[in-house]
Design brief:
Layout (H helix, E strand, L loop, with lengths): L3 H6 L15 H4 L16 H27 L7 H14 L21 H9 L1 H4 L17 H5 L6 H15 L6 H17 L6 H21 L2 H20 L6 H18 L35 H4 L1 H19 L7 H24 L5 H17 L8 H17 L3 H4 L2 H13 L5 H12 L9 H8 L6 H17 L1
């Protein structure tokens, strides 16, 4: 059986003990009385607000029970309110607009509270936790949930995996008891499906649920579970090949990107390179050979890079030229897919070069990390999550600190200066950004020009799309100039 190897190591609900569950049916049916040492405490506005909220909740539960007794199933909600909210959201922020009614009706535990689901998906930070598997934005044609998974909310494993990802992110990436419940439920339903008769939608939904689990696990730094889940995905793909089951290309893109992200973040073994799926194939346009150039700032590093990495840099420069001269239409699927393939090819090859780079060669490792940051940020209209750029920026800072006394850097101070600005521009505000500024001031390899325009001219000798990088670059330069 194709799944035997995986099922021998597959997680069970016993791996994630729930402990004592306070949210039982009995517990939900009772009020809880809490005493205060100071009687004035109960008069506080925050306490009064909690009391009123609790009372309203219990009143609503009472009405639900009455309706359930009559109808046998409680699914009552006001569609006009969600339509109005969706229309209002579209007017303010079209990119993150969501149509709650397209979710469909289901008795799944995961979306029994559709209002909460709407709130979580509307939360930018929480919704980014679904990247790069899917999105719920109505403003983009790329990786839309319903294009990939159809009626996926009727699938218990996928719907619980979505709620796990959203709740985990909304909880500032702390694993709560509720997250444990969603995770256990997801795994239980995946295990129940293994070995059963699977049609194409069911396989896609199972893979989607596993990939969302992978996204949670790499954020937790759990390398063994990430690799185990990805091995399961590999076996599911083998099963699809044996049964001639065709998967949506969005599933394959999700597999590729989740595998690559996990490899960068926690160093898990890569299983899916950019050339494993024909749908992600990308090649140079032979009629536009003039755009594949090595920027002059990198010329002194040509021998350090080697011919293969030089070609990657040329491809990044071509991507920069395209992004500088074109306006991306998020409703244009072919253009988005071409951009995605272009990035996939570049980023996958950069990872391979980073893996083979000699650790003592800090200039090569630093440049690869900076090149990856540039490539990632050249097209982020669809995926705007901060995890990858902030991680790459932190790694680059460590490499630059370790390598600043290297003889190679002494001969290539301009390249190190470019790497530092790239890392600082896309670093998270706070300690990492401050450390980049401190590195610039304390280093002996040169300083930035005193005027921003002159700084931009210097950066453009390497890779620096003015139209896209202006805002973060200028903000970093301003912060540097003030210190």
């Amino acid at each position: 059986m194709v799944h035997e190897d995986w099922t021998n190591t597959k997680p069970s609900t016993q791996d994630f003990p729930l402990g004592e569950n306070a949210d039982t049916e009995e517990g939900r049916g009772k009020f809880r009385f809490i005493t205060f040492q100071d009687p004035n405490t109960v008069k506080l506005k925050s306490v009064q607000r909690v009391i009123r909220s609790h009372g309203a909740k219990k009143s609503l539960e009472g009405r639900k029970k009455k309706l359930t007794a009559v109808t046998g199933n409680f699914r009552h909600f006001k569609t006009d309110r969600y339509q109005h909210a969706s229309a209002k959201k579209q007017g303010n922020d079209a990119k993150s607009s969501i149509d709650i009614q397209s979710f469909g009706s289901t008795q799944s535990l995961a979306i029994s509270n559709s209002t909460r689901l709407q709130s979580l998906i509307g939360n930018k930070t929480a919704s980014q936790a679904l990247e790069p598997v899917c999105n719920f934005s109505e403003a983009t044609a790329h990786q839309k949930f319903h294009k990939i998974f159809r009626d996926g909310f009727n699938d218990e494993a996928l719907s619980n995996a979505i709620m796990l990802s959203l709740t985990f992110a909304a909880n500032e990436y702390h694993f709560s008891q509720e997250c444990t419940t969603f995770k256990n439920t997801t795994i239980r339903h995946i295990n129940q499906k293994i070995g059963s008769s699977l049609d194409p939608p069911a396989v896609s939904q199972m893979i989607g649920a596993i990939l969302l689990l992978v996204g949670v696990e790499w954020r937790l730094g759990n390398k063994p579970r990430v690799e185990m889940h990805l091995a399961g995905v590999m076996q599911l793909l083998t099963f699809c090949d044996s049964k001639l089951i065709h998967l949506h290309d969005g599933i394959k893109r999700a597999i590729f990107w989740q595998d690559l992200n996990a490899a960068w973040i926690i160093g898990s073994e890569r299983r899916f390179s950019h050339d494993i799926f024909p749908e992600l194939h990308w090649g140079r346009n032979p009629f536009l050979s003039s755009v594949y150039l090595l920027p002059p700032g990198f010329e002194p590093l040509r021998r350090v890079f080697g011919s293969d990495l030089v070609k990657v840099v040329e491809d990044i420069y071509a991507l920069q030229q395209y992004r500088e001269s074109s306006i991306v239409d998020l409703d244009d699927s072919p253009s988005l897919l071409h951009l995605d393939n272009h990035q996939a090819s570049i980023e996958s090859r950069l990872y391979a070069h980073f893996q083979t780079a000699n650790e003592s060669n800090g200039i090569l490792a630093g440049c690869i990390l900076a090149l990856y940051l540039c490539t990632y940020m050249l097209f982020s209209e669809v995926w705007a999550g901060h995890f990858i750029p902030s991680h790459m920026s932190s790694n680059l800072l460590r490499v630059l600190r370790d390598a600043k006394k290297s003889i190679l850097w002494e001969a290539n101070r301009d390249a190190m200066l470019w790497c530092t600005v790239v890392g600082g521009a896309f670093a998270q505000l706070g300690v990492t950004r401050s450390e980049y500024i401190l590195l610039l001031h304390q280093s002996g390899y040169g300083t930035l020009p005193s005027a921003w325009k002159e700084t931009e001219k210097f950066l453009e000798k390497f890779l620096w799309p003015k139209k896209i990088f202006y805002a973060p670059g200028k903000a970093f330069w301003d912060a540097y100039s003030l210190n």
